[in-house]
Amino acid sequence: MKQEKPKTKSWIAVLVAAFIASLCCITPVLALISGATGIVAAFSWMEPFRPVLIGLTVLVLAFAWYQKLKSRTVTDITCDCETDKPSFWQSKSFLGIVTVLAILLMAFPSYSSIFFPKIEKKEVVYIDKPAVRTVKLHIEGMDCEACGSTINLALSKVPGVITFETTFKDATSTVAFNSEQARLDAIVSAVNATGYKVSGVSAVE
User: Fold this and answer.
1) What is the DSSP string of 89-147?
2) Listed residues 98, 114, 130: the one ending a domain
3) The whole model's pTM is what?
4) How many structural domains compose the chain?
5) 119-157 pLDDT, tens per residue?
6) Is 159 part of a structural domain of the chain?
């Protein structure tokens, strides 16, 4: 009697776990493409679980490859002779493709910045020093470089903003602006419009 070999769906778990692990950084790119910038911080709460999800992805991948590469018993070989040839979805080639996709997804935060448009430097003009203010914005929800790129892009579009530097590790953005052209509340609103939230503002001497 022919025996049906159990079909593994581990590749689904691999891709789902890898995608969810990087969702907090994929969202800003998707938001930039769609124009729905307000959704970028919706998945920031998942960042603390990222190491766990990456570990789960690696474990499932390791198990899937173990199943493919382990030594086969005489019974397994006999079953292979009696059943149809395994489909492409059960082959090592497909598992290899899944592995590459999973690695690309898990590494997404490290190269996500290439998807953001290059921010052109503003033309430098003479400004009376008393008119220049520099503040540090404390921002909630940032967890990767893509988040910082999203905020920098928003700041670059605010008239009167001279320079800006956003650091996701410190969850801050240092902004210098011409107080005669830009209002602080307009700058804060521009950041909040991205989906992240300015939790505090401090002056920089």
Assistant:
1) GGSHHHHHHHHHHHHHHHTHHHHGGGGSPPPPPPPP----GGGEEEEEEEEES--SHHH
2) 114
3) 0.59
4) 2
5) 665 555 556 677 889 999 999 878 777 788 888 888 988
6) yes
